[in-house]
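Subject: Predicted fold for Transporter, 386 residues

User T.R. writes:
Posting the sequence so we have a shared reference for the thread.
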Amino acid sequence: MNSETVAYIRGVGNTKYVKKAERSVEALAVEAIDAAASDAGIPVSEIDGIIVYHGHIGTDEVIAQLALPDVKLRAIVDIGGASAVAALQMASLYVLGGVARNVILVRGIKGNSGPRKAQRKSFLPSQQFRTQLEYVAGCNTPSQRYALLCRRYMHEHGLTREHLAEIALAARWHANLNPDAQMYERTLELEEYLSGRVIADPYRLYDCCLESDGACAVIVSAQPGGDDQRPAVAILATEEGHADPPDDISNRDPFLHVGLEKAAARLWNAVSLGPDDMDAAMVYDCFTFEVAHQLEAAGFATPDTIGRLILEDGIRLGGKLPVNTHGGLLSEGHMVGLNHIVEATRQLRGECGPRQVPGARHIAVTGWGNLGDGSITILGRHDGPA
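User M.O. replies:
I've generated the structure tokens; pasting them so everyone works from the same file.
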């Protein structure tokens, strides 16, 4: 590993994630960016690259709010919840190519107290198909579209409500160890989970991610920064992939195929590591089933073993594969997956206190976007000289 071929996550920062923030989305973003720059040990003025996501705070707003003096690049990655992880690949190429020194990935959103998901502009592809066929049939929300995948998987592979329940309960248990989480100190028991109101069969209330107010930020650099007291976090490999077709679920064949399958296959071929070498996984959890779906697609399990991984081997701290130790989108906050990268970075540094995965050295982070876009990265702890 050397600094000429590997980029690093140099700094991370976040606000607390809440249901309703009184401050503006710009103020939230500035807090997260300031925290990330402080964590990186650089002044904010040294940020010279910005990558954002459609519908959130924009690059012009970041430059204006922070009075950044010399931004060399601005970019938007627009593959939904797969964007945050995919942006790591883009940022790595920029800093390793000398285009910029410190590229910030930022999410600032008022997803609950601002326009709700159903009110925000949709960036899904093939809007003509959506409006003329799906909407008129009553299929017009993410939960309804993704419930089709969940129900099909349950029918074909025997996944049960108990498996989905453990994914939700594990996320909440982890969030109860995380003071920044929206659901901190709000416990969830099996009976409450099972009695949640139906959202889109088989999804009930606690199968669905939060809508949150907050912000987080990640700074990617060619140099690790920091000091001898803190390990560097290297971006060892990142890939993205897209389903066939990428703009439709209803007519996909194979129906359960998603882009993460392609991305993960390329990723594991690119590194001398495999799923069994991962100490934890941060999996994009827009809905409970998508955790199971992506664990399989990324190679951590098969349809025959995914149930055992969840219920027997364990996805909580202390289990075979701790998943979403911060609480994820289900219980920490919905920052479109960038908070998963923040958590993985802190885990690899050993900064997570009661939710720390002992000795964590490699963590996989996935993204799920739109109608099956997928992304995956491996972040690695590096203790020696870069």
